[in-house]
Write a structure and sequence with these properties.
It is built from 7 helices and 12 strands. It has about 250 residues and is an alpha/beta fold. It has a 5-stranded mixed sheet, with helices on both faces. Strands 10-9-8-11-12 form a 5-stranded mixed sheet, with helices on both faces. A two-stranded antiparallel sheet has the order 6-7. Strand 1 and strand 2 form a beta hairpin. Helix 1 runs parallel beside helix 2 and helix 3 packs across helix 7.
Length: about 250
């Protein structure tokens, strides 16, 4: 079994798969190294043989987690690193090492899946888009705040914006103009994300006509699914790229 880790600044997404089979045995999202170890250790019958990780944390934090995996499960963890070229995709950043590793692996995974021009939309804490042409050239992309950042900034800088998670969830029941602060903020931010997604589709059409594939990933992917018709919703797209960056020996 293979332990795969996607370590962001706030959360760690993890899963266990069987080698050679695209079957997820276990997985989840945690907010600390300790909770990750506890979550994995609590699952009976796991027989881990390999571990690989993509991390946007600094080197010290990344190595600390890798050490915890070694001490808890006796595994050495392969860590993905930046590359100019991977799996037929050429990094489009002038300083290729500055492209976020999670973003890089997601776009590599997308292209490797279809071998065609593709647009990758990742809706997480930040929202990113990336364009890869049919020859595997990464043309670049865009970054903007995601729902957590937009919501957080409004709450931080506007004193009268206060509401709980239940109100936020209820606000997503429609896109009618908001009749409460929660509705106005949640629907307004969502419409901004949807507008961003539509603009990226328009740009992709300018590049490639109709000959491209759209991939949507990230925790808030559902917010744009009905404005990205025909898109491939792939929650674990980063892990597709991780397998290419850290192949098992």
């Amino acid at each position: 079994m293979i332990l795969e880790l996607d370590c962001g600044n706030s959360f760690i997404k993890w899963r266990v798969i069987r080698r050679g089979l695209p079957v997820v045995v276990a997985g989840g999202v945690v907010d600390s190294d300790e909770k990750l170890v506890d979550a994995i250790a609590s699952i009976p019958g796991l027989s881990l043989r390999h571990s690989r990780m993509v991390s946007v944390r600094n080197e010290e934090e990344t190595q600390k987690l890798a050490l915890a995996i070694t001490e808890s499960f006796g595994l050495q963890t392969q860590c993905a690193s930046s590359a100019r070229v991977l799996a037929g995709v050429r990094n489009g950043y002038e300083a290729y090492e500055r492209l976020g590793l999670d973003r890089w692996l997601a776009l590599v995974g997308a292209y490797a899946t279809v071998g065609r021009s593709c647009l990758v939309l990742d809706l997480g804490t930040a929202v990113t888009s990336d364009f890869v042409d049919a020859q595997g050239e990464h043309l670049g992309g865009f970054i903007c705040p995601g729902m957590p950042l937009m919501r957080g900034q409004l709450k931080t800088h506007t004193r009268r914006i206060r509401y709980d998670d239940a109100a936020a969830e209820e606000a997503h029941s429609s896109f009618a103009p908001g009749r409460s602060t929660a509705e106005a903020v949640e629907r307004g931010c969502t419409l901004m994300l949807r507008g961003f997604a539509v603009s990226q589709l328009e740009l992709a059409h300018q590049y490639w006509g109709d000959d491209f594939v759209v991939f949507v990933t990230g925790g808030d992917a559902d917010l744009v699914k009905d404005v990205t018709p025909g898109a491939k919703l792939v929650p674990d797209l980063v892990f597709v790229g991780l397998a290419l960056a850290c192949p098992l020996l």
